[in-house]
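Fold this complex.
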Amino acid sequence: MKEGDDDFASVYRSSKPEKHQTGLYKVFCSFVLIYRDNFEEISLDVSLAKTILDTISSNRDEMIFLLERLVLAESPSTDPDAQAKIQRILIEQLQQLDYEVHHFSGKTTGGYLVARPAGADVSQPSQLLLGHCDTVWPSGILTSMPFSIEANIIRGPGVFDMKGGLTQMIFALKSLLEIRLVPLLTPIILINSDEEIGSVESESRIIDLAKEVERVYVLEPALGQSGKLKTARKGVGRFKIRVIGRAAHAGLDPEKGISAILELSYIIQRLFAMNDYDKGICVNVGLVEGGLRSNVVAPTSSAVVDVRVPTLEAAGKLEQEILSLEPTLAGVSISIEGNIDRPPLERTPANQQLWHKAHNMGKALDLNLEEGLAGGASDGNLTSQYAATLDGLGAVGDGAHANHEFIFLDKMVERSALLALLLLAPVHEQLD
Amino acid sequence: MLKRELDSHFERKLDSYLDLLKQMVDINSFTANADGVNRLGELTIACFSDLGFSSRRYPSRNPSFGDHIVLSKAADSGTERPNIALVSHLDTVFPLDEEKRNQFSWRVEGDKIFGPGTVDIKGGTVLMFMVLDGLREISPVLFHGVNWFILLNAAEETLEAEFGELCRKQIPKSALACLVFEGGRRNNDRYSIVTARKGMATYRIMVEGKAAHAGSAHQSGSNAIVKLAQVVTAIAKMTDYDRQLTFNVGTVAGGTVINRVPHMAVASGEMRAFESDILNAGIADLKALEDIGPGLSRNGEFPSQVHIEIINRWRPWSPNRKTNILLSLWSESASDMGWEVVAEERGGLSDANQVWDHVPTLDGLGPSGGNAHCSERNADRSKEQEYVFISSFIPKAILNTRAINSLIEGNGEKRAE
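Structure:
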């Protein structure tokens, strides 16, 4: 379903009175000519990079102010109502950038926003900017984890994951507007509010958009304090294993019982044996429970397992291996549910091409960017199946989901500029 | 001693015995309902005072439990009068709200009386009363020639040690027997009498691993759940049916969230054996699992710690000669009647575990019934509530009375020799 014909969507029109101006378009064309001529030799117009950087730098205070507003609008994924406030701020910001924003309400979540430049020609090729406005932090956490700035460090719930990234995106788009450049690929923005709980209601829209666009930039935090871009993410799956044995009094007739706890213990050890660190396969039995009391042979038990895999091939193999586990003890029954629902984000040729593009762009900003592999999944894992995806384009800092969550202030400007340049990059095919 | 005389006495008074049982069952005496336990205690005191027993209360050290009761009746004057102890308990496992919720109260259906404590153990206390009443009726001289001790545990279902201490203090070491009135199985004319019970130790296992993010730093964690699984399988291997040593890990729990290598896992369990040395060796083997081996982190750098704590232990009532001598009196009593007694070594504990090495002990002398500790029932009767068989009272009372009669007579003969 496209936005616009959806009953659940609210539409927020551009707050700017005028539509695209031909003047802007001309600047855009002349830029592309210069740019294309030099792209292969890396020498992206350094002066353009500097212009963008200067533009964003001059908006630095405004940028911090927006980040603060976003952080103060606490937005735990599990509280749909809490999303309204931060979504209003984002809608207002995007409208000021001449975007038309659709809010798709959720059933159990706060829904998601999809924004496109007002009056954009939907038949034109496009690129997706993917972010989320929810956090893992409960409302009220600000009292113990306030928004603060100390020298170059900004702290607060969600600054790193990923309100910093959202802020950088707004100011990247703003800088392009200010210097009157329009990307060749129309930016489409999707901001969901259920990412931290598995993008339960936004997943299908993300996939639909990924099929539609030429490439995807994911605004998740960069990797490590050096700020590596994420060119690979492991696939993630969850399995729940339930064991049904037979209860019996452990004193009176223990031989009549079949311990579901014992069976589960065998299974847990076999799951542990599936770990293969050299291949990057992790199997974590994260939760276990079972039994009634010490003098009853346990009739039931269960475990929840988290798995991480580097490749689709490994995903299929491991999934099969787990689902085909058989019980050891006679007379017990086991049920195993689950799958690897976030496929790995692999270093496909298309993804690597996008990464090299970013690496080159970084040089224009005097950055020597590095790439890295993330153990956790993001919505980038979904899009990578359909479009070239580059992840980790958000804030640089540390402490996602942790009390020490922070970002580097100076890196906000730098990464925002990098994103602006990446938005301008033509798709590779056009060079041929 | 004639079966007919006893039989007719019991038949004549059966309604009054069952009425006493009803009065007892109508009082909720859940272990933690101290008021109820004490009200049942008063009823029991009043009823045994008719037989000439005086009473003493011994408050539990646990303030939420009722008073233990010792009833005693001294023998008429004479020298070297024999001592005999009878043991039952006042408490049941059913809280009042559970009884109400499950509509669990006195209900007669054919030969079955359903209700809380009918077989465990209010029926046993009534049967104890019947035995003394019958003996007084049929053999008054013998009855009055014995120092009787009746000990009623206020908190048997919690296996508190204090009642055992009370028994050892109150029952003279020279007593001929300690007779425990827990329910006993009956299969036509075969009566199970309990001659041994397993001892038990309960334990808690705590495994401490090292937490890490399951996605980004899995290899730096040490999974406590996996370690616990190793311990659980090792414990299962220690069960040895040939030595009648059993282990059961009854509960497990571990972990906090799925995407974290769990740093903590716990389990609780128990182990049982009929012989103290086997139980103690089992405990030593269990404790040795604290050194089960290196941790399960990638490089073994962070070994997980296994802690095994013995929470409580109860000594076994081991098969023994003195109990077997007592049993032979019950066997003789049964065969005279054309019945049979079967010795039963039971896995569950009772107060007998705490006295058998003080005084020769026999257990399972109460009536027969079923579903002890169950208050639930459903339409297809796959779940049914605790009950006692009405028809089991008189035969069991006859069996016990005749055997006790022989016990007292035998003691007299022994002294005469």
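Chain B is about 35% helix and 25% strand.
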